[in-house]
């Protein structure tokens, strides 16, 4: 189970879940600044007006904006080879479509990259991680407008030119495939019903009254923006490597009933394979046209769209993997929750406190499945266990997290032995941050504990967990010592 000597070990965060500094450095508002915190039993809520008396997790998050030097030093101490992070579009172009970029924002990320260089950490930068500028939502209805394609590509070109030589690994859109899910309308595509902009009532996530026709048309525009960005990246610097990012929800048929098998294949294609096929193969797969016809969806293709998709295919395929679900046509089967979507309970798997089914063997299966389909380098850019941590005498003994990660690293090694070209792994997340699904700090992922809590209290102190030292050893031994 030897890992390649060039294997990229690291961790992943996103701007809206860790930075804070929502009004600092010339940053504009993003869609996350309008989402209030929640818990597992109370979903995060969108409201078109910010109430200063309410708690909005992204406003302060874990204050990475002011503590990035300390945090990157901790990543360096662990021996990170790479660090996946995102640039907040609204830090560079506060309104999304500004004529000139915000120099403070450009300098902020430049300083982060310089800190990474001190520790020989390779940045892997996501250009859009669920935080589209709010003005792009209001003015253009997110990616529903074709104008947003050019606005995004201008932003992408700006940062790629500015950070040339400092960043060579780029991801276009985080979990781009979630655009087919109802909750992806706002979070991923920046879509909102115009009536909601004037509403005084809170609106639960995923209930923004946007049609699937609008979502898939907006997703088409994201595909085009991704392709144009890939082309621009290669023109700006031939050393650039651009990947997609798929939120992979691995699915199995609950039984060997052929109807369960066909239903599982169908759901896997729509959720996981559709977006991957477009950005890797450069064309819409045949099966998606039948699905669109059956759902009264008719995408508007314009002249040049087909050629652009074909010319702008990605260099590598990155994805998140936390869990798996089962699929069945049966009524009354037990359901479980998961990464922005749930599924049917698998009787052979245990689950986390949040109901996410733990399935390391599924990671090996997924890696082989993706390698067989695409034959381009693969990278796991999110994988981890969300769990509550207890501080005892200044220490956090998170053996449950170590157990989860050990089993998944073993599965990665097996996949590499199978012949899969896996080039990197960035755990989610190396440091505690705001949960995207619930808005909690109580649900923690990090190797580094942050003294920040759901009621807004805490002094932001960082504490190394037991998993910090375990992962450091894993990196030092290139995955050989997992004890």
TrEMBL record:
Q: Name one GO cellular component term.
A: cytosol
Q: Which residues form a coiled coil?
A: none
Q: Which SUPFAM superfamilies match?
A: (Trans)glycosidases
Q: Which InterPro entries match?
A: GH (IPR017853), GH_1_N_CS (IPR033132), Glyco_hydro_1 (IPR001360)
Cross-referenced Pfam families = Glyco_hydro_1
Keywords linked to the UniProt accession = Glycosidase, Hydrolase
Question: Domain of life of the organism in this record?
Answer: Bacteria
**What's a single GO MF annotation on this record?**
beta-glucosidase activity
Asked whether the UniProt record includes Glycosyltransferase among its keywords, one would answer no
Per the record, the GO terms for biological process are: carbohydrate catabolic process
* Family assignment from sequence similarity: Belongs to the glycosyl hydrolase 1 family.
- State what protein this is by name: Glycoside hydrolase family 1 protein
Q: Which organism is it from?
A: Clostridium sartagoforme
């Amino acid at each position: 189970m030897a890992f390649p000597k060039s294997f990229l070990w690291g961790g992943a965060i996103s701007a809206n879940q860790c930075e804070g500094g929502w009004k600092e450095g010339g940053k504009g508002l993003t869609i996350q600044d309008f989402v209030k915190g929640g818990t597992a039993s109370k979903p995060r809520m969108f409201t078109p007006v910010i109430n200063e008396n309410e708690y909005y997790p992204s406003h302060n998050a874990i204050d990475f904006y002011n503590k990035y030097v300390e945090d990157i030093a901790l990543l360096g101490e662990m021996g990170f080879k790479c660090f996946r992070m995102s640039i907040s579009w609204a830090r560079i172009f506060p309104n999304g479509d500004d004529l000139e970029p915000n120099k403070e924002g450009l300098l902020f990320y430049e300083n982060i990259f310089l800190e990474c260089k001190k520790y020989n950490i390779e940045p892997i930068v996501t250009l859009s991680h669920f935080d589209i500028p709010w003005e792009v939502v209001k003015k253009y209805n997110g990616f529903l407008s074709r104008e947003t394609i050019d606005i995004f590509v201008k932003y992408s070109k700006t940062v790629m030119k500015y950070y040339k030589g400092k960043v060579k690994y780029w991801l276009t859109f985080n979990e781009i495939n979630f655009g087919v899910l109802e909750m992806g309308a706002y979070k991923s595509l920046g879509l909102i019903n115009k009536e909601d902009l004037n509403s005084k009532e809170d609106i639960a996530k995923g209930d923004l009254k946007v049609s699937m026709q609008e979502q898939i048309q907006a997703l088409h525009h994201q595909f085009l923006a991704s392709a144009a960005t890939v082309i621009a990246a290669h023109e700006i610097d031939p050393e650039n490597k651009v990947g997609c990012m798929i939120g992979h929800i691995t699915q199995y048929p609950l039984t060997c009933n052929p109807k369960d098998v066909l239903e599982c294949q169908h759901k896997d294609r729509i959720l996981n394979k559709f977006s991957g096929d477009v950005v890797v193969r450069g064309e819409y797969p045949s099966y998606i046209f039948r699905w669109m016809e059956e759902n009264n969806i008719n995408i508007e293709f314009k002249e040049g769209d087909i050629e652009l998709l074909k010319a702008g295919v990605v260099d590598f395929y990155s994805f998140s993997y936390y869990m798996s679900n089962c699929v069945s046509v049966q009524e009354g089967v037990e359901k479980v929750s998961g990464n922005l979507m749930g599924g049917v309970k698998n009787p052979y798997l245990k689950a986390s406190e949040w109901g996410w089914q733990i399935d390391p063997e599924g990671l090996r299966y997924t890696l082989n499945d993706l390698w067989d389909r695409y034959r381009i380098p693969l990278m796991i850019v999110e994988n981890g266990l969300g769990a509550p941590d207890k501080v005892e005498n200044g220490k956090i003994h998170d053996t449950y997290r170590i157990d989860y990660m050990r089993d998944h690293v073993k599965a990665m090694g097996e996949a590499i032995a199978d012949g899969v070209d896996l080039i990197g792994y960035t755990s989610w997340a190396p440091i505690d941050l705001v949960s995207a699904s619930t808005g909690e700090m109580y649900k923690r992922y990090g190797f580094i504990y942050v003294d920040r809590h759901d009621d807004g209290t805490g002094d932001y102190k960082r504490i190394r967990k037991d998993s910090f030292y375990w992962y450091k050893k894993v990196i030092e031994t290139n995955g050989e010592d997992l004890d």
